[in-house]
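Q: How would the structure tokens look for this protein?
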Amino acid sequence: MRCFCPGPLAGLLLASLFLVAPAASAAGIAGRPTLVEAVDAAWRIAVEARHADSESRRAEAGMRVARSFAADSPALAWSREEGDWYGGARAGSATETEIGLSWPLWMPGQRRAAVDASRADAAWASANLAQAQLEVAARVRETAWDIAARQAELVAAQSAVDALVELAGVVERRVAFGDLATSDLLASRAGVLDAEMARDDALRRLEAARARWTVLTGYEETVEAGEMEAEARIDSRSLLSRAGTPPSLVAAEASVRRAEGERAAVRRSLGAPPELTLGAKEESDGPAATGDRSLVLALRIPLGLGARRELAQATAQSALDVAQAELSLARSKHAADLAAARSDFEITGRQLEGARQRAELLSRRQRMMERAFAAGEIPLAELLLAHRDSRAASADLARRKAERGLAHTSLLHAIGAFP
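A: Here is the predicted structure in token form.
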């Protein structure tokens, strides 16, 4: 009788997983990145990077406008008027030509308020950029930990398959010698199939996580598990003692200063800026007459009255009220998130230690049951249950490791720590 063993497809999948690198995607970057390199790569292709870059360019343009000589773009005006007249021996015409250049002017204190508002806007754009980078770093860390958990789960599942295949071979030989019933052989083969399906499910989840990683970072391969574990071993108390103001609060505070600057600029403004016009005018009473030329100097000052100015001021005050409320909410949320992250980090640490001890105990129990089965002291059904319990404990240990890593990632995100 031939020995029961896994099919060629499963062997091919495992060979591709453990002996060679993952298959390269069309857009993937070859090589194994560090965590910093993965975060940088993810930032380069992230939508948030495009948005943050556009906000920075807009803030820089606003600063250039605030520092310019004119409050708005200058304008060039030209006009010509002609009128027919009749008198004397012949008919003629009068002409009037005028050309002028208008400069929109800053009101007293308006330019300083505009510069201050532009600086606050630039600080807000910079704070938002840092917050967006931290969000991308969190996604990279979370995906890396997910892959590490899936890899550990797959290794445990493959170990279970190997153990059950070996057991099925032993059962098959003992059935051939008449020591065991054929039903035991069928049960052992069913156990192998069950373990192989669990292994394939783990492989499918791992490949899905790797695909998400490639989309996120552009890399084919993931960060070394040892680097992620080394980051997770950093003392949490040391992290908290060195932590400053997280980017989320910096961005919320910058949003308040930005709204305050906008309100101050609106209060200094009358709506449309005053205009100074400098020009020249030439008037002629007829074809033979000598034209009169004059210098034109005009000043146009809007009164800044009415509902339009009130609407602008109300809009600016509303934006400030919203920014202040968001800052208060951000502070409360940060305190709650930090407390939850610290608690989660401590609890997952205890759970990980418990899962490690449980997996070790059930693994020892499985080895004891195997010896008892070989001595004929227990039936095959009990051994198969021991294998199933040990496999479940190994999968739970892999999951607990990932939860511990994700809890550490949440703590790093709460205090605003970059890789």
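Residues 13 and 203 are 9 Å apart (CA to CA).

The longest strand covers residues 90-104.

Upvote if useful.
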